[in-house]
Amino acid sequence: MALRQTYLSMKDRLPKNAEYVLVMHGRGNDEIAPSKELLDDFNEWKAKFKPGEGYPTAFHYAWAKSNYEARFREQVKNDPAAVARLKDLAERAKTRDIFLICYEGNDKPCHRKLLLKIAREEFGAPVDDSAFVPPAKR
User: Fold this and answer.
1) Contact assessment for residue 39 and residue 45, using Cβ atoms and an 8 Å cutoff
2) Measuring CA to CA, which residue among 70, 72, 66 is closest to residue 41?
3) Alpha-carbon distance 109 to 88, whole Å?
4) Per-residue confidence at 138, pLDDT binned at 50, 70, 90?
5) DSSP string covering 1-45
6) Where do the structural domains in the chain lie, given as residue ranges?
7) More confident of the two residues 44 and 52
């Protein structure tokens, strides 16, 4: 049992007994979603990307230039509701699989992966950060 992560198009392929939490704005868990300010800044940097700047994609460029990881960690750390929600998920993940889900595919850095790191570091959550591979369809 562990706190895990995947992206939205995999939601319907999760094991039947798995719990999931949508960690995007407007999905009932805004306290553990990135702030509008962080997303706006990220998207501004993404729009400025030009190939050949040392980053594989506009997404990776914007992640670095917006200082996304540090800012998101700070956002979570300074929000008591976010801390409480993540602590609760960390505790519950000791007895069941709980998947954090957002839009980004596995090939990109993402706030759901940061949430796993924070939950492990701060609350000792059992974490399986490997990419979810659904069982083959029969």
Assistant:
1) no
2) 66
3) 24
4) low
5) --EEEEEGGGGGGS-TT-EEEE-STTTT-GGGSPPHHHHHHHHHH
6) 3-123
7) 44
Using the Cα atoms of residue 28, residue 34, residue 35 and residue 39 in order, give the sign of their dihedral: negative
The pTM for the full model equals: 0.94
End-to-end C-alpha distance for the chain, whole angstroms: 25
Q: In the numeric block, which tokens belong to residue 60?
A: 């990776």
Question: In which region does residue 61 sit, left (phi positive, over 0), alpha (psi from -120 to 50) or beta (all else)?
Answer: alpha
Cβ-proximal residues to 5 (8 Å cutoff; 6+ apart), any chain: 99, 100, 101, 110, 112, 113, 115, 116, 129, 132
Predicted local confidence at residue 53, as pLDDT = 86
Interatomic CA distance for residues 124 and 19, integer angstroms: 19
As a whole number of angstroms, the distance between CA 85 and CA 70 comes to 19
